[in-house]
Recover the amino acids of this structure.
């Protein structure tokens, strides 16, 4: 029996692969900024490991595994003033970012950290621009922007510098990140 080509499925697989690659590049640019902040003494921030368990290994270095828990926010650490920082990183190939791209578990974690006084945020990439949006703004997106998605223009005040790394602690605009 010949397997029939499914154009819709092929397009979806290509888009998924593209999105996955963009996500990895985005996170790598954030990790590079974390290293810069560490080297300059501004912060100690690390990528949060995925809750993952290896089930079996083959002799060729291939393994089978599974996620063991819901993912936490992508990055956590400490700023020089002693405050914790925790944030999720999201990128999109469209011109808008939906509020619900964060899981309920990630939203709950950002809320708990906010309530304890941490800097909690969502670091995003839209239209090749980078933003570090405070959790309370993201959480209340409907009240701030009238809908449950944002565009790059909506969040321009939260735009951060990019020099090959996503400098999420360095807003372009003077009052960026101030609520």
């Amino acid at each position: 029996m010949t397997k029939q080509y499914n154009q819709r499925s092929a397009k979806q697989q290509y888009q998924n692969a593209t999105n996955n690659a963009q996500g990895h590049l985005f996170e790598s640019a954030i990790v590079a900024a974390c290293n810069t902040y560490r080297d300059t003494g501004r912060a100690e921030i690390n990528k949060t490991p995925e809750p993952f368990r290896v089930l079996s290994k083959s002799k060729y270095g291939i393994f089978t595994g599974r996620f063991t828990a819901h993912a936490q926010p992508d990055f956590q650490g400490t700023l020089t003033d002693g405050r914790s920082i925790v944030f999720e990183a999201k990128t999109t190939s469209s011109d808008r970012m939906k509020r619900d791209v964060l899981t309920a578990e990630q939203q709950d974690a950002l809320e708990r950290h906010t309530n304890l006084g941490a800097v909690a945020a969502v670091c995003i990439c839209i239209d090749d621009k980078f933003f570090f949006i405070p959790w309370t703004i993201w959480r209340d997106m409907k009240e701030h922007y009238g809908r449950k998605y944002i565009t790059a223009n909506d969040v321009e005040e939260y735009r951060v510098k990019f020099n090959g790394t996503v400098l999420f602690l360095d807003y372009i605009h003077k009052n960026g990140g101030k609520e």
In short: The chain has a mean pLDDT of 88. Helices lie at 7-39, 104-115, 135-139, 141-145.
